[in-house]
């Protein structure tokens, strides 16, 4: 089997995104008019799995949803997109998570009601055949689940690409050693390492360690540190329509390149291209993304 046809397991959340846009950010105890309201399928796991499938990967998703209409609809939607949802679970009596995303001019954040995700039992990991996968993309299950995934994947010698998200970033330094690849955004890097993600600090974080740390920088692109060396790719100039899910698309592009045997600089370029595309379309799942889009030539910088 070629690496392009290898199987990849995504472990992460599913939720409904409720995106609220305003023209102004209200002061404390103030009010603002919502000028745009959208509801879409989301969750780091579902977003990444969908993009991986669009890029030709054989992808399975391990997630947890409630026994409600939202959870059933999202699992069906993923199956229709070519994602194997067999490793996923539906929890009786639980509700599927929801994320409220207020978008102000120049600023946005996420308010997470994780629902069934926070009821995820780490014992469910024991039945997952980690050795059957060429890679695991790990996102944001509860910490005991994330740690068990790291342990079982290490036992199976399956590399883990870990993108823990803001809720777990502050506890990263002691746990990330089990992950071959660690991906964070600028705010998560600060929380994890207590410093700005500049080239000098990133090089020091990776020096003498068998891991790669990737930092996404939004419109500025992304950079990666490996064995003390740092590379950077600038983002393509695009008109942003919806930034939701851009980091998940980046992770999918990066892993898709890895599964095709591409180098670290090329994987960085694929990730940045997928993330740049994702912000040009509404929703978190980067509809319409293709291999041709992520494989367009784009320069990689060597950062001293």
From TrEMBL:
Protein name: Ribokinase
InterPro entries hit by this protein: Carboh/pur_kinase_PfkB_CS, PfkB_dom, Ribo/fructo_kinase, Ribokinase-like
Keywords from the named record: Kinase, Transferase
Pfam families reported for this sequence: PfkB (PF00294)
Keyword Transferase: yes
The keyword Kinase appears for this protein: yes
Family indicated by similarity: Belongs to the carbohydrate kinase PfkB family.
SUPFAM superfamilies, A to Z: Ribokinase-like
Gene: rbsK_1
All copies of domain Carbohydrate kinase PfkB, residue ranges: 6-287
Organism of derivation: Streptomyces hygroscopicus
């Amino acid at each position: 089997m070629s690496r392009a046809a290898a199987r990849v397991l995504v472990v992460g959340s599913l939720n409904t995104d409720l995106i609220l846009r305003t023209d102004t950010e209200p002061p404390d105890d103030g009010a603002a008019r919502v000028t745009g309201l959208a509801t879409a399928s989301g969750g780091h796991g579902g977003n990444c799995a969908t993009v991986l499938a669009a890029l030709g990967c054989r992808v399975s998703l391990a997630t947890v949803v409630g026994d409600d209409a939202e959870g059933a609809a999202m699992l069906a939607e993923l199956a229709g997109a070519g994602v194997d949802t067999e490793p996923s679970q539906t929890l009786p009596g639980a509700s599927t998570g929801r994320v409220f995303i207020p978008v102000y001019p120049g600023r946005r954040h996420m308010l997470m009601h994780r629902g069934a995700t926070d009821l995820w039992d780490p014992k469910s990991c024991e039945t997952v055949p980690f050795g059957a996968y060429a890679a695991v993309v790990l996102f944001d299950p509860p910490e005991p689940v994330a740690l068990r995934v790291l342990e079982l994947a290490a036992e199976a010698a399956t590399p883990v690409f870990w993108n823990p998200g803001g809720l777990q970033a502050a506890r990263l330094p002691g746990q990330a050693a089990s992950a071959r690849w660690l991906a964070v955004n600028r705010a998560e890097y600060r929380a994890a390492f207590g410093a700005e993600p500049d080239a000098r600090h990133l090089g020091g974080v990776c020096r003498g360690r068998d891991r790669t740390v990737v930092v996404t920088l939004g419109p500025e692109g992304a950079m990666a540190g490996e064995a003390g060396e740092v590379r950077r790719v600038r983002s393509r100039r695009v008109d942003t329509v919806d930034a939701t899910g851009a980091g998940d698309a980046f992770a999918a592009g990066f892993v898709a390149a890895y599964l095709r045997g591409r180098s670290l600089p090329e994987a960085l370029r694929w990730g940045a291209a997928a993330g740049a595309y994702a912000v040009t379309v509404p929703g978190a799942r980067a509809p319409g993304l293709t291999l041709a889009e992520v494989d367009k030539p784009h320069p990689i910088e060597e950062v001293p």
